[in-house]
Amino acid sequence: MDLRSDRGWRLDLGARPIGSSVVQFRVWAPRAKTVSVHVCDPSRNPVPMDLREYGYFEVTVEDVRAGDRYHYILDGEKVRPDPASRSQPDGVHQASAVVDPDAFGWTDRGWRGLPLKDLIIYELHTGTFTETGTFDTIIPHLDYLKHEVGITAIELMPVAQFPGTRNWGYDGTYLYAPHSTYGGPQGLKTLVDACHAAGLAVILDVVYNHLGPEGNYLADFGPYFTDRYRTPWGAAVNYDGPDSDEVRHFIVGNALYWVTEYHIDGLRLDAIHGIYDFSANHILRELAEAVHGQAARLERQIFVIAESALNDARMITAPAQGGYGLDGQWNDDFHHALRTVLTKERAGYYQDYEGLGHLATAMKDGFVYSGQYSRYHRRRHGNPSKHCAPSQFVVFSQNHDQVGNRAFGDRLSSRIPFEALKVAAAAVLLSPNIPLLFMGEEYGETAPFLYFIDHGDPALVEAVRRGRRAEFASFAWREDIPDPQDPATFERSRIQLGSPRDPRQAAMLRWTRRLIDLRTDIPSLGAGGETPGHQVWVYERENVLVVHRWAKQGPVALLVLGFNSETTSVMLREPGGRWSLRLDSCARDFGGTGQEPMSRDLAITAEGVSISIPAHTVALYLRVD
After folding, report:
1. Which of 119, 453, 516, 578 could make a disulfide contact with 150, Cβ separation 3.0–4.6 Å?
2. pLDDT value at position 460?
3. Rounded to an integer, what distance in angstroms lies between the CA atom of residue 90 and that of residue 113?
4. Could you tell me the CATH number of the domain that includes residue 69?
């Protein structure tokens, strides 16, 4: 199969080459009476475009080739880049560039994607992952990610063209244009092709709840936004008002564009709680249906995963049962419960999470808050998720938000003891959910991940500074916050991927790899399916969790997670049977002392057996009978 084939879908917006030197231009601009396209050559005049149905303008222009710059002229006055630009080589305010979507020589003809249950995700920020911060310079590290860490998918933070050269990506204003300083369209396709050659899937973080403020000219073209709702980040996208059909077409087309033209294996939808749609067919359901339909046509596995603060199981419930049909969602409850156990933080949204019981609930059921009162929200929050498969939840102990949205971008490696880091890693990587690591977490990176921007408008820069200070107020983080606009803030956020590891970082990397090997090799330690294959016991006083995991094939596992800060003991009365130690975090190979090993053999009966657990210890047992 030739994956360059569109298999029934092709982008119908923007500049589309239809010959070696002929390009069709099409733009939705109902707010303009006239639209012209101007190929940026002093010898050429703007070409008037023909008005079509629903406010679309289009024209076919000869003697135009890939790489040529162009822009639209609205009503003879406003010169604007293309809303569906495939490339913005000179930034968000300058002309768009024609891209031939069929020119890249893909080599991933046999790639079909990976099953959802096999995903072990590694989230990275292109600009800070390497010294030069480009798509191309990620490629030499794929072998490390695949073989030394063991992940199966990388997840790129948003790459849509944003202002300047440094940004998290959530201020993107050209949703179809891979960021120019990262390497643009060619660079992203080269990275995806290389990932597939290495057997790695690629998930792309996309932002459909708002657009960034700088370089955002969509409102000049049409009613892309609405004042009926407002997101925390600016005007809400118009998904359910007048003319919203064409806005929805623009967004759904973007999702199909990434999975078709760029062979992306999954989309992570940012903050869907900022997507407002009261129409009969919610945009998330329409988008998921379109992506799944295209996946079937392309004969590939492609997933849609949401980030949501709603705790609403409808997102990942099948349409036949009244849901939206997304494949998965991030589970912040798991993170918050784990974080409060590890660090004892109780400010902000952490105030809702109390002890190991909530972490056990997240492991067993998905949401901790499934309809009960939340002190942070000051209302009842969430609905039950017990009917959802564990493999529909992505869990983590760190990610870009939970590190970068702290005032000083501090990672867990600077907050908790080394042995506790190993417990956090085991809780995530041996969970029945889909695990996610944040870049550098695998070896205990200590560089912070701070919030950074490169806006050109001084007033906007100051507004961002004020907004960050206000955001941190509920956490009582009142010290001087690093300036987001300062290039030094960005430079401090680079991880030291190629640097020599100190002994503890080397041990942490071995620990991460060992956990992933066990998850991959032992079926009971993988992602849980629709039938529950795990049970959790909470020893609150001792600060210990015991997780019993089983599958149709392979050995039954018993995981002991010791969050205790000093040696303790627990009495196990179930699950019964004879058990043999397979993994002990106290081992010297993983940076432990090797002096307080866990019991090598256990015989658990109804009378019980007492086991001694050193401080911050992980032990994995396999049943031998």
Report:
1. 516
2. 87
3. 34
4. 2.60.40.10
Residue 7 lies in a domain: no
If you average pLDDT over residues 31-45, what whole number do you get?
96
Q: For the segment 571-614, what is each residue's pLDDT rounded down to a tens digit?
A: 999 999 999 999 999 999 999 887 778 899 999 999 999 999 99
Cα distances (Å, whole numbers) of residue 158 to 85, 125, 288, 492, 527: 16, 8, 19, 20, 26
* Mean per-residue pLDDT over the chain, rounded: 94
Sequence-distant (≥ 6) Cβ neighbours of residue 300 within 8 angstroms = 3, 111, 112, 113, 259, 265
428-480 per-position pLDDT tens digit: 999 999 999 999 999 999 999 999 999 988 988 888 877 777 776 666 656 67
369: three-class secondary structure by DSSP? coil
Query: CA 238 from chain center: how many Å?
Result: 24
Sign of the alpha-carbon dihedral angle for 433, 311, 212, 237:
positive
Task: State the Cα–Cα distance between residues 505 and 264, nearest whole angstrom.
Answer: 32
CB burial class (10 A; 0-12, 13-18, 19+) of residue 595?
Answer: exposed
Q: Which residues on adjacent β-strands are paired with residue 202? A: 154
Spatial separation of the C-alpha atoms in residues 576 and 561, rounded to whole Å: 18
Domain tally, the chain: 3
- Whether residues 154 and 87 share a domain: the answer is no
- What's the half-sphere exposure (Cβ side, CA atoms, 13 Å) at 462? 3
Give whole-number Cα distances, 547 to 495, 513, 557, 572, 620, in Å.
33, 20, 8, 12, 10
Q: Give the predicted TM-score (pTM) of the model.
A: 0.96
Same domain membership, residue 282 and residue 347: yes
Confidence tier at 3 by pLDDT (50, 70, 90) = very low
Query: What span, in angstroms and rounded, lies between the C-alpha atoms of 574 and 596?
Result: 24
Q: Indicate if 240 and 208 belong to the same structural domain.
A: yes
Cβ atoms within 10 A of the Cβ of 306, count? 25
Looking from the CA of 313 toward its CB, the CA atoms found within 13 Å total 18
Residue-range definition of the domain harbouring residue 535: 531-623
Q: Are residues 80 and 205 in the same domain?
A: no
111, part of any domain? no
Check pLDDT > 80 for residue 4: no
Q: Active-site residues: which are they?
A: 270, 307
Give the pLDDT band (50/70/90) at residue 311: very high
Q: What angle do CA 499, 504, 506 make, to 5 degrees?
A: 50
Do 435 and 563 fall within a single domain?
Answer: no
Q: Do strands 50-51 and 544-549 pair parallel, antiparallel, or not at all (unpaired)?
A: unpaired
Q: 186-236, pLDDT tens digit by residue?
A: 999 999 999 999 999 999 999 999 999 999 999 999 999 999 999 988 899
pLDDT above 70 as % of the chain: 97
Question: Is 110 inside any structural domain?
Answer: no
* Residue pair 524/554 in contact by the 8 Å Cβ criterion: yes
Q: What is the per-residue pLDDT for 1?
A: 30
What is d(CA 145, CA 137) in angstroms, rounded to the nearest whole number?
13
What is the CATH classification number for the domain harbouring 591? 2.60.40.1180
Same domain, yes or no: 608 and 559:
yes
Structure tokens, 191? 């990275």
In 478-615 the beta strands, taken as DSSP E runs, fall at 534-539, 544-549, 557-562, 568-572, 577-584, 601-604, 609-613
